[in-house]
Amino acid sequence: MEERNLELDDDGKIKLRKRNEENAAEDLPEEEGDGIVLDVPDFEQFGGEEPTGRDDELVRRSESWEDELRRRKEEAQRIYEEGESLFAAGDYDGAGEKFLDSAAMYAANWRPWFGVVRVQTKDFTDFSGIYDCEQAYDKAFKRMPKAERAELADKYVPALSARAEECAQKREQLTAEDVREREDAREEVNAAYGAAKKRLFIALILFGIFLVAGCALAPFVHTVPDVRYLVPCIVCFAAAFVAAVFLLVCLRRFVPASGARSRNRRAGTTESGEHARIFAEEEELLRSIIEDFTK
């Protein structure tokens, strides 16, 4: 019987006392001292047991699984190499199918997933389809070892960085043009807005005056036998109708003028500003890809 001491705290110790088959049923003597004694089985005696039939079955299944995994890896590698050949020949669609087949055969390998991204981006030169392969992109970079990531960074990052800088320059240039175009048009836009607003208020006031006048005269129409109230009442309602039509026309002109004024105050609303936004989005995407390569 062996004892092994473990420090518990300042007040005492724990002693582990092994029991085997011979003394498992015996009452062992109390240990002296203030420590705590725990009886544990002696697992070393089980080390020499012969494996059972169930153990043999587990071993056979494990070996069978390893053989299947090895076969899948080899098959996936073969399909991947076929995809690389098609990609080098310019057959992007065929290469993409091969890369997907390889990933389906053995998904733990990062190379087929990265191949899908290369197909969608035409080897990182056209990013219009990159959002169609977000899942492949994430899987490729999550599985990619640091050494291979560094090699790919040396290959792709210089061109990506140059393109990002080009996008940044174009963005700044187009943003400046957007500001200048909006400032040049601001006086005309504000004048059109002011005129439309003035006409709208006049139409609204006229409509209100004639409508109130007609409503005020209407109760007196039947109080007298002649038409002294009827004619003015009809004239007021007719004028209110004309004013309502004029009000609608003014409103239709005011809404576009107000929208033009709002757009003129907002950055990126000109054609140059729209192009600047596109270059800004591309720059952000490129720098995100560069970060994934270099982190």
What does this protein structure show overall?
- A 3-stranded mixed β-sheet has the order 1-2-3, with no helix packed on it.
- It has helices at 53-88, 92-105, 110-120, 134-143, 146-217, 230-265, 271-294; strands spanning 3-9, 12-19, 36-41.
- The chain has 3 domains: 3-46, no CATH class; 58-144, Alpha Horseshoe (Serine Threonine Protein Phosphatase 5, Tetratricopeptide repeat), CATH 1.25.40; 161-294, Helix Hairpins.
- Mean pLDDT is 84; it is low at 1-14.
- The protein has 295 residues and is mainly alpha-helical.
- It is elongated.
- Residues 1-22 have a biased composition (Basic and acidic residues).
- This is Tetratricopeptide repeat protein.
- Keywords: Membrane, Transmembrane, Transmembrane helix.
- Residues 23-34 have a biased composition (Acidic residues).
Adjacency order of strands in the biggest sheet: 1-2-3
Q: Which strand-content bin applies to the residues? A: 5-15%
Radius of gyration: 42 Å
SSE-based structural type: mainly alpha
CATH topology of the largest domain, which one?
Answer: Helix Hairpins
Report the CATH superfamily of the largest domain: Helix Hairpins
Distance between the termini: 55 Å
Q: What's the number of extended β-strand segments?
A: 3
Write down the CATH class of the largest domain: Mainly Alpha
| Rounded mean pLDDT score | 84
Poorly predicted spans: 1-14
CATH architecture of the largest domain: Orthogonal Bundle
Helix-residue proportion = 55-70%
Series of secondary-structure elements, N-terminal to C-terminal: EEEHHHHHHH
Largest sheet entry: 3 strands, mixed
Domain count: the total is 3
Tell me, briefly, the overall form.
Answer: elongated
